[in-house]
């Protein structure tokens, strides 16, 4: 496996691999029956694909268009709705139909809304020479999400986006707009953490300081202590892999050790049981977004497939559930250890030139 030699090369590979993982999983995001994936894509996803018109597991019509969470007691007044009026302008009509794909109309190799939000943060960091500014990020995030026409191709916004803009529309300060819902402790909250942690480490920040900063950033959208603890572990693992010598500790042990203290059980012992992935993810762990299951799944897949990162991303994709956000976290980790996926697949992304420029600006600005 080609191992990136310098820290800048590792960070570049990590970020490129994260976007590849996002686009790879997009067409079967939130498919909760792996057999449905095989029906739609015989043999499973093996390359970038467009989002199908029909989504067998979609419950987008049950999600609130006014706030985070599900529909319940929706108002009938004249105030602007979050979905359609404030964000996702022109796309609210797609939320009221059964089995509409969450990423309706997206083409092969396109990246989802949360990946685009990671790019918003990356550009903020690059513009400030690697320095994180909370208010600059929030301003850029708000501008991006409320743009008309939208500056992204996605149809769905996770609960945290809708909750944030519901409170923002009420006049709350941006840094106090996070809404707590049943899915606040979700793997999607870690999507922007990778770029921030890698940028800070490249600038020479110490791990505890990076963990504190990432907690502060996470609290803007995902204020949950259980997610914060996993974030601490994720940051420590990112820094360890970024700094590790090429002939360092065995990667399966590194990923297994990362679960200690974050609620994940003995990952290495689980891998050695050689169970089918669908028995691990779907029976032992839920494939859903909740961090209590999603983080152990990331470590399990990283531990099992670290010698073949492309297989790891395909396995993650074809297990379904919240495979997009799980994949971005997994891809960031594995991209630090191998440039294989980035070198083979990154240039096939729909916006690879623009994303590549964002990555280069972040890495160069932090170096």
SSE order and pairing:
Blueprint: H1 7-25, H2 34-40, H3 82-86, H4 113-127, H5 134-146, H6 159-169, H7 193-202, H8 207-218, H9 225-243, H10 251-258, H11 267-272, H12 277-280, H13 291-305, H14 309-318, H15 323-335, H16 340-345, H17 352-366
Description:
The protein has 367 residues and is mainly α. It has one domain (7-366): Orthogonal Bundle (ADP-ribosylglycohydrolase fold), CATH 1.10.4080. Helices cover 51% and strands 0% of the residues. The protein has 17 helices and no strands. The protein has helices spanning 7-25, 34-40, 82-86, 113-127, 134-146, 159-169, 193-202, 207-218, 225-243, 251-258, 267-272, 277-280, 291-305, 309-318, 323-335, 340-345, 352-366. The longest helix is centred in the first third of the chain and has 19 residues, at 7-25. The model has no long low-confidence stretch (mean pLDDT 92).
Keywords:
17 helices, single chain, 0% strand, ADP-ribosylglycohydrolase fold, 367 residues
State Rg.
19 Å
Q: Could you say which overall geometry the principal axes of the C-alpha atoms support?
A: globular
Strand tally is 0
Overall domain count: 1
Percent range for β-strand residues: under 5%
**What is the chain-wise order of helices and strands?**
HHHHHHHHHHHHHHHHH
Give the class-level CATH name: Mainly Alpha
- The helix-and-strand class reads mainly alpha
**What percent of the residues sit in helical stretches (DSSP H or I)?**
40-55%
Helices, by number, come to 17
Question: Do you know the CATH topology?
Answer: ADP-ribosylglycohydrolase fold
CATH-defined superfamily: ADP-ribosylation/Crystallin J1
Poorly predicted spans:
none
